[in-house]
Batch of 4 targets.
Target 1
Amino acid sequence: MIYLIKIAYTILFPPGIIILLLLAIALWLKQKKEYLGTLLVGLAALLLGVSSMPYFGNTLLNSIEKRYTPPVQVSGDVLVLLTGGATLDHADPLTKGEGYLTGNTAARVLTVAELYRSTKLPILLSGGQVFPDTGNESRIAKRHLLALGVPESSIYMDDKSRNTEENAVNTQAILTEKGWKAPILITSAFHMARSVKQFQKLKIDVIPYPTDYISGQNQRLSISKFIPSSSGLSTTTIALKEFLGLFAARNN
């Protein structure tokens, strides 16, 4: 029963309902002998359907995420955390401030807190306020690290960066100022390849420590993997964004 409910959700909500509408329009155009329109609408439905399949999105994303794995032993002189999103205006009584981290950033913060407990290395947070209606990512992340027991004296911030390129540039300035030579880079696995490339462009040798994996290493084939869903479309979108960003980083 639970699987039937999930399938019903997939059909009734986007992208499922949109795919059905496109197919209905394609059939209507075919009846009117509008063959070019039928072809174009049909292709749009096919493209949306395939890109919304979890199997397709996971396969794409896994090809990026598997490029780096967390080292068994951590050796460096600073933990560099790249943030990835935060909300604004919501009160957080636990950390006594406003704003919440998105899921990706929260996973990264948890990883850096665990690494701090085992290494006692200083933490450098990199990420600012991207849009007027979003939170300052580093400042909110700092609140959470303090709540997790990391002393304020061990936390440094670049709270100005708005994208990965600025993360690398602003981090380089702080690394130079503090004399840190072996930064351990913490970010989501899907974001690591693009991040490493941006740091390499500045001749910064980072030690990648990916976290927040989305795709599985070994997918089990099942019918649910081929049913279009919003989560499948989201995974595909993340993968395509990273491929595009990696291409831009290599050719800019």
Note: The chain has one domain: 52-213+222-252.
Target 2
Amino acid sequence: MLQEDLREMIDAGAAKFPADIVICNGQLVNVNSAEIYQADVAIYRSQIVATGDVSEYIGPNTQRIDATGKYLVPGLIDGHLHIECSKLSMTSFAKAVVPHGTTSIISGLDQYVVTSGLEGVREVLDEIDMGPLKVFWGLPFITPYTLPQSNVGFNVTAETHREVQKWPEVFGVWETVSEFVENQHDDVMKAIELAREIACRYSAAHQ
């Protein structure tokens, strides 16, 4: 987030700008305190800027949504998902899970990588970018996951990580299988090193 955007969001949080949307009369599920209570929610530029009594955030063009009888819950994150096993496109998968509260997933997109390489993964990531589902993608540490290593499909190596860990969609390494770590496989050790050096820095830069 640029400094000017950050300043704008701080001002929005101080009610210096009217909210774009206010959700009224809902029951807020506070996942920090394990409480459920009535609270309104003010949203500015797709970010929550206030909860509770948000009357001062309402302007003439603020959209009001009546949530009477409904619960307001933070988006759920599926922490480990092989989405390819659903046999659905990313668009169809999002249509299936987002209405039920799952707004983000963590996945390696393994089989896309193995069967279609980086070009195919790029198409999948572009499709994800057009939809409502957030995908935190970790490049598989190596593909295929076999010892001895198979030559069937796209092989992810340390050099692949050197390139791809700089992509803005990448958040590190996905699913480091214990056998490869225990045997100190050269490409796996290098992938972990590169992820620590590159992805952590780039992930923070692209927030």
Note: The two ends are 6 Å apart (CA to CA).
Target 3
Amino acid sequence: MKFLSIDTSTKYSVLAIFDEERLGFGERRLFEKGRVDGLDILIREGLKKTRARIERIGCFGAGVGPGSFTGLRVGLSSVKGLGYGLAVPVAGFSSLDAIAYNFLEDEAVVDLCVMVDARRANVYCRFYKRRKDGFVHISADELVPAKGLFSRCKPSTVFCGDAVGLYRHEIEKEFGIRAISPEAAWFPTPESIRRLSLEAFASGRTKSCYDLSARYLYEQDCQVKKAC
């Protein structure tokens, strides 16, 4: 069975088309304008290169955030529309996990903090600890003031996510340059969303397209306001 998963929680649109054995197509692309059309083009390109037909996709996956409000709407709308149109299940996964999974093979990283810019001097964050079979969550997805984040971190913590670029000086001053991960690992990758999607599919964490929703932590910004 073939799978198609996307993540649009950051400035990049990430696409993976794969089966249980391998990644058939993976791309991380920046669309500064026209993100809806850009994602559609990317999906069509991936299907063409893998010679896959959209009606043969057995499951769809999507990063549900937290992250960019607009980006998440684009990605989830696409996956929900495909799931509805083809009557196949969908699965959601944490977009912060999709960043953390870039470090699964790097055993030197034991304590990990994913931090993504949430604006207003806040960050979306999650803490991870390496165990024998990979990372475990030390916290839930959180929205916190950036200035209060570092007091919760261990000296051995490695930081990743696009907010690292914003707070690089503070991180280096407190934890040293070794705590700064490579910029290429600050965003979800096709391989990381492939792994998360397969885990969700294998464990039965799929759902109807009607039940797939974004993880918005700025709840007050995501309410429909009635006119007085």
Note: Residues 223-228 have pLDDT under 50 and may be disordered.
Target 4
Amino acid sequence: MVTVTECTTLGKGRLRFHLDNGTELVLYRGEAKQFRMREGSTLSDEEEHQLIYEVVGKRAKRRTMHLLEQMDRTEQQLREKLKQGGYPQACIDLALEYVKSFHYVDDYRYACTYINYRQDRMSRYQLKVKLYGKGVPGEVIDRALEECYEGDEQEQIIRLLEKKKFDAQNSDQKEFTRVYQYLMRRGFRSNDVLHAMKSKQ
């Protein structure tokens, strides 16, 4: 049995409940009324299970499906969105298990798609940093890069040098260093950068 220790009114007819076991739930007024929830009220273990897995859990599944309809997302991005929506961890896990069972969420597929669309203008390093920032696990990123990356980094460097209007013959050491550091910040390997820059002589 758990006790409601606090109830806070939110917008759009929603209420946030704090339970004495540490769980937080966001419910609509009708749902709260159905379970007779208010500060000081109690829930049996069966009622708590029903509330989390059948009421809020089902809503978390629908919310996750809606998020995926808008755009492809990583598992971590979905978890963050659901957490921001006030869903408890048990409901988040339930929703992610549901969509993963249908392969609606697949971090490897997401990484490969991301790489395929951006490999012509981003280095391997840049892609790795971007995917890591989106919550894709490192081992998944490495496998996706190994199997999906077909970009020509030398060609990318040359295009960037042309965009910068770099001319090795007419550039002093300061200009050479500035362009070199710019390319290094974009994640290209030093040997590739120097080779491309010297080829512009």
Note: The chain has three domains: 2-101, 107-148, 153-199.
